[in-house]
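Troubleshooting: if your tokenizer reports a length mismatch, compare against these two reference records.
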Amino acid sequence: MNRKKKAALSAWVLMAAFCVFPQAHAEETDFRKTSWTAMASQYENPFYLHKEGAALPSEVLSQWWTLFHDDTLEELIQLSLANNRDLAGARGKLREARAAVGISKASRVPWIQAGAGWARAEAPDEMISDVTPKPMKQMPGMGIENDHNLSYAGLDASWEFDVWGKNRAKVKSSEYSLSAQEGMLYSTWVSISAEVAMNYITLRTLQEELTVTEAHMANQKENLNLLKVNEEKGLLSSLPADQASYTLHESEARIPELKKEIAGTLNRISILTGTIPGALNEKLMKPSPLPEMDAELYNAIPADWLRQRPDVHAAEMAWMAQIEKTKEARAEMKPKFSILGLLGFAALGGGLFSSGARAFGFSPSVTYPLFNGGALRKQVEIQSARETEKQADFENTVLKAAIEVRNAMTSVSQDKIRKDSLEMGRDKAKEALELSKNQFHYGLSDYMGVLDAERHYLALDQQYTLAKGQELTDMISLFKALGGGWKPLAAKEIEAGK
């Protein structure tokens, strides 16, 4: 290919790129205008199965744990609200942010100080300024002459005019930061309440699995004893008893693992509820059945959903705060206008409050950062770069929120199918076990058929128990992904603000 053809081809490729890319850019999503819940349902969720009549009212979502109708779970939720240390730390950060708003607002009004003092100077002239009160040194024409007493009382004030909006931007930034911190507090609570519920469901699931395993072991021990009796009578060889024995030991080996997992779950609940490890054992060690709930009935996004997920809100407010910090940095590059004032009494010698001792001073000033080695401009670049980072964080949080909702809804649908399949499989395995026992009893098969059926029945019974717990955990994941559970925290914060 000659040079002219190559040049023509390159030009055509560049023109095509310029035509295509701007169009793709124009179709990008505006994350601030698009609801994250709408984004979650914008495209079909291929493995989510919608059940007719499924609904999740926002009032239910605000305290979703009540759907489980479990008094112990509700008590643990309240304990975590009152005692969780991470939540206490988030509350402390919120109070800090509120105080920061007050400080930033104070920069927009004149600062006034009251002062009084007395000085006696007998020193070379060049040292007199060292003992002159600071407010008087700031004003022209004020000072102590050598070998005099000076007394002073009055007010001095300073104020910088917010011509370029620097202080205004500082106030807005602190207000956005406060709103972001409020979002982080609620986000912390959403995570904590969900973790408490998930660990509680895990505890009850493990306890139920332990009960199931021990029940199977009891049957295995009974069968082993019968086999040993028949072996002693010479009716059977030692093989069936040996086979039953190693199957029993295999089941027994699962018990220590379950107990370790139960102990670890109890300790996690203690951390989440802010209680001393072991303090809740009396209440939680007694096994209780898993809560009953038709998860598919609530596997939906609330139709009246207007509330923002707290971490999404926090990320957006952090971005807005950074935008104001960039504005503040730009204002630092412009002239500053300020006023210094003094009103009071000053006297050399006595008569501080006499009519002739009145003192007054007024000093407007303007300063301009003429040369600073480019430091202020670089500071603007830094804040602008952080603005881009915060925007990316916000958009990423929105995408993660939409993904978490879709994943949770898919999990509820698919794990319901899995649970139902395991339940049917468990029932069939139980029938197969009874049939294999009858065949062995009448000499129609050896004991390996019984052992095989017994293993399958135990495995399916355990898996079905875990599937029941997983379905409930999936539902909690959906509540968490939707930012649910805000009602008790909101009530507590309102009460604390009174």
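Reference record two:
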Amino acid sequence: MTESNPLAKAEAAAAEAAVNTAAVQVALAAVELAKLAQTQQQAPAPIPAPVGSQFSTGRWIAIGLAGSVCAISLALSAIAVAVGTVAVTCCLLVLRSMWRDFAKGR
């Protein structure tokens, strides 16, 4: 019989499919085995006991100084804004007065 026989072609395709199916099953088994090995290796590590964080006196002094510096900086900024506002107000009052005099024709 020749390879052109449809029955022979079907038998060859079936044999190839059986080989491919077996190969796929072996590959899937290998993947499952790898997953199993990975989960066994990744046992949860014990959580170390937390080390007590102790603030020393020096740290508290540093925190107090930093807070004081921030508060003083904020106060000086507020004073600068207030002085600027007064200066702008005075300038606008003078300009308004000059504009009224100019508008009256003086």
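Descriptive notes for reference record two:
- The two ends are 126 Å apart (CA to CA).
- The chain has a mean pLDDT of 82.
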